[in-house]
Every structure is written in C-alpha cells, then in structure tokens.
Amino acid sequence: MKNQKLNLKLLKNKFGVCRLEGDRPIPDWADSNDFYSITRTAEELSIVCPEENIPSDIICEKDWKCLKVEGPLDFSLIGILARISTLLAEEKISIFVISTYDTDYILVREANIQAAVEKLSANGY
C-alpha cells in the first residue's frame, strides 16, 4: 500500500447516520439516487443517506461529508483504511466508514472535512 497512490473524491451531499430499531422495515426515505447504505443487525437498522431525506423524528447524526476511495479496489490490497484512519486520527478527526464490494467510503464531520482533505492531500491522496 505504501507506494500506491489512491484518489479520493468528495461527494457533494451532506449525509446523516441514522439508527432505527432492528425489526423496523426499511423506510422509503432511505432510498436515494446517489448514495445510501443500509445495514441490519439483530439490534438495529443503520441507514446512511443524504440528510435532506431524513424525517425529523428519526434518531440520527447529521452533518457528515463523504470521501469516496476511487475504485474498484482489489481485495488483495492491504491497509487502505488503516492508513487513512491513522492519518485522520493524528489530526483528532473521527470517521465513520462504509465498505462496499468495489471500494470504501469515509464519512467525516463537515466541520472537519477541510482539515481531513488537507491531511490526506499532504500524504499523497
């Protein structure tokens, strides 16, 4: 991973990370054309979607921006998220990560996105 340069793309929307009860059906508002993620466990239904889609009565954390690692990424690659998360941790920047088959998405609070972009750019991303 050390020598490979990865490109990151800042997605345009602001996102919310929502928590619903695990037995709730997937709500219609979760679906968006651009980017959303839904994960169900026995304890919760977790939804990440554009914050303008989220009803006011839903438990959520808003004001997240999203950096997409341009993929697709090969499954044999090692340390992508470890390196990114370490760099951001050095700046005391909290992240929320979503991985898909092709790539990774790193959500960063909007208040920290500029510092995150600067730190990652300074380190070859």
UniProtKB/TrEMBL annotation:
Q: Where is the CASTOR ACT domain?
A: 60-121
Q: What is this protein called?
A: Uncharacterized protein
Judging by the UniProt lineage, the source's domain of life is Archaea
UniProt cross-references to InterPro entries, sorted A to Z: A9CJY8-like_N, ACT-like_dom_sf, CASTOR_ACT_dom, CASTOR_mTORC1, UCP008459
Domain A9CJY8-like N-terminal stretches = 14-57
Q: Which Pfam families match?
A: A9CJY8-like_N, ACT_7
